[in-house]
Amino acid sequence: MNIAFNYSSRLEILSSLKKIIKEKKSVNIKNISSRLYLNFCNDPEIIIRTGGHKRLSGFLLWQTAYSEIFFLNKLWPDFKVSDLKKILKKFKSIKRNFGA
Q1: DSSP conformation class of 78
Q2: Residue 47: other Cβ atoms inside 10 A
Q3: Does residue 47 contact residue 66 with C-beta atoms inside 8 Å?
Q4: What is the Cα gyration radius of the chain?
Q5: Hey, where are the domains in the chain?
Q6: CB of 90 within 8 A of CB of 37?
Q7: Cα separations (Å) of 91 from 33, 67, 88, 98?
Q8: Is 0.70 topped by the overall pTM?
Q9: Alpha helices (runs of H) in 3-98, residue ranges in sequence order
Q10: What separation in angstroms does the CA of 69 have from each of 41, 47, 58, 78, 95?
Q11: pLDDT digit string (tens) for 34-90?
């Protein structure tokens, strides 16, 4: 589980590109991905957005290309284990084709 405070995907991607340029490497998906802040983690399969907002707000924009996003009309402190179980049940029923 990752929780980000004062985080910006735009700055993360820009930082990755600056590293590539400084290292005189080719700009490609592999090189960008390997220089992101969470390059040691797999891309998230599920994003849960609480608070009733239907936006990512710049959260892991590169990494969430194939994530399933669930929006809840409740605040984070009100999020319960039962909510997570419902999301996981729904997630299991989704046919994921990863852009194919």
Answers
A1: G
A2: 15
A3: no
A4: 16
A5: 8-41, 42-100
A6: no
A7: 25, 10, 5, 14
A8: yes
A9: 9-22, 29-33, 81-93
A10: 18, 5, 14, 19, 14
A11: 999 989 999 999 999 999 999 988 889 999 999 999 999 999 999 999 999 999 999
